[in-house]
Specification:
There is one protein chain. This protein has 259 residues and is of the alpha/beta class. The protein has helices at residues 38-44, 70-83, 96-107, 127-140, 142-153, 156-161, 163-175, 178-190, 217-226, 241-244, 246-258; strands spanning 2-6, 9-15, 23-27, 49-53, 89-94, 112-118, 204-209, 231-235. It has a single domain (2-258), classed as Alpha/Beta hydrolase fold, catalytic domain (Rossmann fold).
Length: 259
C-alpha cells in the first residue's frame, strides 16, 4: 500500500499492477477502507490487476473540509486513474462506493469498461435521517454508534459465527475520522441519481442483499431496472455482501467480468 498526491489530495491505495489482465477498481463503503476488499483482492489475483483506495476522509486518505459531494468523490477516482496512467477500468463499489460508481457511469463512461454496483441505491435514506446521524456522530463519536452500524452491516447469524471479523470491522469503523465520515454522510444525503442513471450505457451488474436494511432489495432492484440492460443478482446477506457471502460475491464478479 502506498500514497499519492492527486489534485492536492493525499490518497492511500493498493495496486497489484504486476499482475496480468484488466484493471479492476474497488471503492469502499461509508465507515470502512480499502481493507474491506482484502478477500476480493486475493481471489482475483493472477486474473486481474486490482486497484483499491481509501475514499476521501476514510482510512489513510486525507480528511479535507466537508461537506463532500458524490461528484467530488467521483472526481477523486478520475484523478487517481490519471495519476496511475489508467485509461479504462472495471469498477466495483459497495454502498457509498456504488453511488460513486453510478456517478462515474453517468459522467465519465469513457473511463469504464463495466460497473458493479453492490448494496447501493440511487437515493439512500432521507435528508432528515442523514442530518440526525451527522448530529449524533458529532456529539458522541463513532464508538457510540458502532454496535448499531454493525447490526446493519451484517446479519445476526453471520455476526454470531464470525466474531473476529466483526471486531476487525468495528475497529475499522471507529478508526474512521469523524469529520471524514460526516462529510461523506452529507454526500449521500445530497445525492439523488434516480433519473440520471437511466443514461448509463455500460455493462452493469447490480448486487443486492436479501437481508440488507441500509439499501433494501427494492432499492437495489430499482437501480437495475433504471439502467438499460443491467443484470441483477441477490445474495442472502445484509449490507456488506462481499464479506458475508465472499465466495458467491466473487463468483458473481468472475462471471460478469469474464463473460
Amino acid at each position: 500500500m502506498t500514497q499519492i498526491e492527486t489534485g492536492g489530495l493525499r490518497v492511500r491505495y493498493a495496486f497489484a499492477d504486476a499482475a496480468e489482465g484488466p484493471v479492476v477498481v474497488f471503492s469502499n463503503s461509508l465507515g470502512t477502507n480499502l481493507r474491506m476488499w482484502d478477500a476480493q483482492a486475493v481471489a482475483l489475483e493472477g486474473r486481474f490487476q486490482v486497484l483499491r483506495y481509501d475514499t476521501r476522509g476514510h482510512g489513510q486518505t486525507a480528511v479535507t473540509p466537508g461537506p463532500y459531494s458524490v461528484e467530488q468523490l467521483g472526481g477523486d477516482v478520475l484523478r487517481l486513474l490519471d495519476a496511475l496512467g489508467l485509461e479504462r477500468v472495471h469498477f466495483c463499489g459497495l454502498s457509498l462506493g456504488g453511488m460513486i460508481g453510478m456517478w462515474l457511469g453517468v459522467h465519465a463512461p469513457e473511463r469504464l469498461d463495466s460497473l458493479v454496483l453492490a448494496n447501493t441505491a440511487a437515493l439512500i435514506g432521507t435528508e432528515a435521517a442523514w442530518n440526525a446521524r451527522i448530529e449524533r456522530i458529532r456529539e458522541t463519536g463513532l464508538s457510540a454508534v458502532a454496535p448499531s452500524i454493525l447490526e446493519r452491516w451484517l446479519s445476526p447469524e453471520f455476526r454470531s459465527r464470525s466474531p473476529e471479523l466483526c471486531r476487525s470491522l468495528e475497529s475499522m469503523l471507529v478508526a474512521t475520522p469523524t469529520e471524514g465520515y460526516v462529510a461523506c454522510c452529507a454526500a449521500l444525503r445530497d445525492a439523488d441519481l434516480r433519473e440520471a442513471i437511466a443514461a448509463i450505457r455500460l455493462p452493469v451488474l447490480v448486487i443486492g442483499g436479501a437481508k440488507d436494511q441500509a439499501t433494501p432489495p427494492a432499492d437495489t432492484r430499482s437501480v437495475a431496472e433504471r439502467i438499460p440492460g443491467a443484470r441483477y443478482a441477490e445474495l442472502d446477506t445484509a449490507h456488506l455482501s462481499n464479506l458475508e457471502a465472499t465466495a458467491e460475491f466473487n463468483a458473481q464478479l468472475f462471471r460478469f467480468w469474464t463473460s
